[in-house]
Each structure stands twice: as C-alpha cells, then as structure tokens.
TrEMBL record:
Taxonomic source organism: Neoroseomonas terrae
Catalytic reaction list: 2 H2O2 = O2 + 2 H2O
Family, similarity comment: Belongs to the catalase family. HPII subfamily.
Residue span(s) of domain Catalase core: 28-416
Domain of life: Bacteria
Protein name: Catalase
Keyword field contains Transferase: no
Catalytic EC class: oxidoreductase
EC number of this enzyme: 1.11.1.6
Cofactor(s) named in the record: heme
Keyword line: Heme, Hydrogen peroxide, Iron, Metal-binding, Oxidoreductase, Peroxidase
Molecular function per GO: catalase activity
Function, as annotated: Decomposes hydrogen peroxide into water and oxygen; serves to protect cells from the toxic effects of hydrogen peroxide.
C-alpha cells in the first residue's frame, strides 16, 4: 500500500486537516457540495452548542446511523468472490439452457460461501454446514445454484425450516450458544426428527470443519430438471468438485484457529485470489430419467437422500474459476441476493417439497433484508444480458420503462413482447391428487443412508464422527435427549452408538429407536464420500 504525502494543516485546536491537492479530490457531501472542514461541527463560538443548520454534520451522522441492514436470517456470515464459468461441451441433447450450448463459453459468476448458524461477526471455523451459493449471469438470465457443502439436508419439508433454524440458533431466553450445535434445543429437535440422521452424520464428520473454502465440494442438494428444445425432461443433480481436492481440519485445530484468527477462511480466500492462485471447481451433473427415479431405492424428491456417485457417476460439464475479489464487501457480498427460483430456460424444478418451499422463501427474505422491491437494480443482482420488462416505480427505482408504454398488450408497437419459443417454459408434468398434508411413505427410511455414509468413512474419519457426537452430546444437559440420540445411533451403527455411549458414560444403552423402515445393509458403499480416500 502506498502511503500518500498529504498536504497537512493544523487547526486552532491543534487538530490536523488533510487538504485536497492535485492528487486528491475535494471531499463533498452526498449532494456534491465541497466540504471545507470535516474535523469540526458548526458551533456558536468554539465552545458553544452545535447548530442545527450544520447540514454536513447532520447528513454524515444520519447516514452512519443507517449503515446496518438486517443480517441474513441464516448464512449471515459469508465471503464472496467473482469469477467465471467455462462450459466444457454442448449439453444441447439434454438442456436448452444457453449456458450449456457452446463449448468454451465463458459466463460471469459470483460465489458466496458462508456458515449457516453464526451471526455476521462469528468465527469461520465453527462446526457447521457451509453455504456454496453461485450466481451465474447467463445470456438468458441469472441462474442461482444456492447450495451447501453437504449433499443432503436436515429436513424433508419446508414447513419444518423455521423450527430447525430456531432450534439451532441461540436459545431465546439466554441468547447463547451463538454459533455451535452443542446445546439442548438443537439436539432436542434433531432427536425428535429422525429424518435428520443422515445429515447429522455429515454434520458431525470432517466435512463440517473444512480447511478452507477452496477445499470444499458444493451440492445443489435437490433434484432439478433439465429441459431440452422439445421440453423433454431429464432429472439432474449438481455437484461442484474442488480442483484442489478436499481437506478439513480436526476439532482441536478448529478451536485454536477460531481463537487466533476468526477470519481464517476469509483470509485464505483473499490471499489466494490476490496472489493469483485462483481456486477452481468442476461442475458435475448426475443425470437420470424417470425410469431410473422409479427404480432407485429412495425417492429422488427426498432431500435427505443422495444418489451415490458409484451408482450414478457425476459427469463434469464445466469449470468455475474465482479470480477477483469484490471491490466492496457490502455492495457485493452483503447485498447479493441468491434465490433458488432464479433459473434460466432449460432448467426447471422437481417437486422436492423443500425446494418448493425455498422457491417461495428467498424472494420474501430479500425484500425484508434489502428493503426494496428494486433489489435487482443493484449491480451485483442485475442480469448482465439485455432485459426488458414493464415493472416500474417502488423505493429506489433506478430503471423505469422508457417511453409511453408501461403495459402490454399495447397498440404502440412499443416495449418488449413474449418469446414463446425461446422463453422460460415449465415442464408440463402430469399432476393430480387429493389436497392433503401427508409425508409420503417413500420418504420413510431415515437410517439406511446415514449408515451408508458412516460406513463409507475410513476408520480415522469414523472416529472423528464418534468423537464429535460424544463431544456435542456431552454438552446436552437433559439425559432424555442424549438417550434419544443414542437410540437413533443404534439404528445407524452399533459400534458408533457404543463409542458415543462410552464417551457419555452411559451405563445401560437404550432400546433402538422405532423405525418405519428397517435400515438396509445391502447398499453399495460409496468410497467417493470419504475425504481421506480421495
Ligand atoms: C440463505 C431460507 C434450505 C442454502 C437463506 C436465507 C433464507 C433461506 C431466508 C437468507 C437469504 C438472504 O437473506 O439472502 C431457506 C429455507 C430453506 C432453506 C426456507 C428450506 C425450506 C436451504 C438448503 C440449502 C440452503 C437445503 C442448500 C442446499 C442456502 C445458502 C444461503 C441460504 C447457501 C446463503 C446465500 C448467500 O450466500 O447469500 N436460506 N433455506 N438453504 N440458503 Fe437457505
């Protein structure tokens, strides 16, 4: 950093004034009025009361007083970077998404990594899921893949999301713990929610304390659809694979790093990109049709399940390179608004009930957080392709329809028109049935994939899971909750349950939890799940 020699002047009270010269512009108010003195407010005499007419002081304090906006209700702590996505080859046989039509096509991208639970100022190395949200500024509109570094989720239905998040955030009477899963409320909810067991195995594994953002995988989690030019559908799951491979720290390291440098992950990404060591991920897709979905052991609409990579090998379709840090953290990283419902033509949703709820939730939360329906006018959220619509006015409108027409159809030949052949069309799925609140039976197996994940791990990784569970549950004050968790673990793996029981000093193990579906032993082990084997 260059230290500028400023022209310095000393005021009557000994205060220093830095005066504009050829190299620095004059300071102005937000209205552009040049400021003569930024060190002293306007007073009656040197020691008298401050005058209300001091518009510079008033404007400066007013603006400062309003600097904070609500932090994200989840994923408040995050760090972003710009880059690009490069398509390897045309996928026109499965999707008409413009981004996948031409090999070598480069699409601008912005990525925000985050923790989920902690507040904006919390530490980077908390044991937590990491958000991996990607905004792709495609030529046919913004496409957000709002994913995590874990391929499954805690709950099956969006209606449980507020409960999950309330349980994991600080307890409402005492305001702690702030950023860790180690407390009664969280384990109470989890132990009463057997569908969360698969995710819990991942959250207690090394995946939840990554060495850096650069060594993490990312997952879209839900099943989506690709639609081709004839609107034929192929199911798709999205996976980001880091070129550097995966690395994690161990818990003792995480605790020390958090104490010594709570910005560890931020600093790592900043340093890597600033020194030209650009992190890179391959986007891989798992593609399958309705026949595969019908034959697969689990419901592909259930977000607590994955499709093992040896059952359906991920196909690399492009690479993501992060090569530029934002110029301004607030303007870009904080104000970026990711939304699962941002999909371009050629990408569509499945009926995954968690995804359907998310599609509703993100628009809502962005309005609250960013304060205006015009948040798409912010440069970080605006498309980088031409766009034309008739939306107008509202707080902070920076773009309104030009000319006479702000509606259509109109007789003036003015303004944009519908694009029936190239525009976004939804998959014409056949849907019929009675209107019910019902969890389908195909979502009922909560333990088989939890077992699959645990057993896919190396002995070292398995011991880390057992230690994490022992440590976290040892913080739970209520014996009945610890017991409930042990009863679930007995359904997942006896030896895991025994290790955790021993760590908790439990003399007599409880009965295994009731299970609607007996956990299976016959699933192929998935070596791709282990970090140490990769
Ligand atoms: C952020 C809701 C499930 C990934 C958020 C935010 C909300 C939210 C309200 C804050 C957004 C903001 O203020 O900008 C929900 C709901 C869910 C759900 C209602 C379930 C029904 C998930 C799942 C994933 C996920 C399953 C991963 C696949 C993310 C990420 C962010 C986020 C990565 C941070 C985006 C950023 O960096 O700005 N979510 N979420 N969420 N969510 Fe979810």
């Amino acid at each position: 950093t260059r230290i500028h020699d400023q022209q310095l002047r000393r005021g009557a009270g000994g205060e220093l004034h830095q005066v504009a010269d050829g190299g620095t512009p004059p300071l102005t108010t937000a209205q552009g009025v040049p400021v003569a003195d930024d060190q002293n407010s306007l007073k009656v005499g040197g020691r008298g009361p401050t005058l209300m007419e001091d518009f510079h002081l008033r404007e400066k304090l007013f603006h400062f007083d309003h600097e904070r906006i609500p932090e994200r209700v989840v994923h408040a702590r995050g760090y972003g970077a710009h880059g690009f996505f490069e398509t390897y080859k045309s996928l026109s046989d499965v999707t008409r998404a413009d981004i996948f039509q031409r090999a070598g096509e480069k699409t601008p991208a912005f990525v925000r990594f985050s923790t989920v639970v902690g507040a904006k100022g919390s530490a980077d190395l908390a044991r937590d899921v990491r958000g991996f949200a990607v905004k792709l500024y495609t030529k046919e509109g913004n496409w957000d893949i709002v994913g995590n570094n874990i391929p499954v989720f805690f709950i099956q239905d969006a209606i449980k999301f507020p409960d999950l998040v309330h349980s994991v955030k600080e307890e409402p009477d005492r305001g702690f713990p702030q950023a860790t899963a180690a407390h009664d409320n969280f384990w109470d909810f989890i132990s009463l929610t057997p569908e969360s067991m698969h995710m819990i195995m991942w959250a207690m594994s090394d995946r939840a304390i990554p060495r850096s953002f650069r060594f993490m995988e990312g997952f879209g989690v839900h099943t989506f659809r690709f639609l081709d030019a004839k609107d034929q559908s192929t199911f798709v799951k999205f996976i980001w694979k880091p070129k550097l491979g995966m690395q994690s720290v161990v818990w003792n390291e995480a605790v020390k790093i958090n104490g010594a440098d709570p910005d560890f992950h931020r600093r790592d990404l900043w340093n890597a990109i600033q020194s030209g060591d650009f992190p890179e991920w391959e986007l891989c897709v798992q593609l399958f049709d309705q026949a595969f979905a019908d034959a697969f052991e689990f419901d592909v609409l259930d977000p607590t399940k994955l499709i093992p990579e040896e059952v359906l090998p991920p196909i690399p379709v492009g690479r993501l390179v992060l090569d530029r840090m934002p110029d301004n953290l607030f303007a870009e990283t904080e104000q970026v608004a990711f939304m699962t419902q941002n999909v371009p033509p050629g990408v569509d949703f499945s009926n995954d009930p968690l995804l359907q709820g998310r599609n509703f939730s993100y628009l809502d939360t962005q309005l609250k957080r960013l304060g205006s329906t015009n948040f798409t006018h912010l440069p970080i959220n605006a498309p980088k392709c031409p766009f034309h619509h008739f939306q107008q006015d509202g707080h902070m409108a920076m773009r309104n329809p030009v000319g006479r027409a702000n509606y259509q159809p109109n007789s003036w030949g003015a303004g944009p028109r519908e694009a029936p052949t190239t525009g976004f069309r939804s998959f014409a799925a056949d849907e019929a049935g009675s209107k019910v609140r019902l969890r389908p039976e195909s979502f009922a197996d909560h333990y088989s994939q939890a077992r699959l994940f645990y057993r896919s791990q190396t002995p070292t990784e398995q011991s880390h899971i057992a230690m994490a569970l022992g440590f976290e549950l040892s913080k739970v004050q209520t014996g009945a909750i610890r017991e409930r968790m042990l009863s679930h673990l007995l359904r997942i793996d006896d030896s895991l349950a025994a290790k955790v029981g021993e760590a908790l000093g439990v003399a007599r193990m409880p009965k295994p939890a009731d299970a609607a579906v007996e956990p299976r032993d016959d699933l192929a082990l998935s070596p791709a799940l282990s970090i140490l084997k990769n």
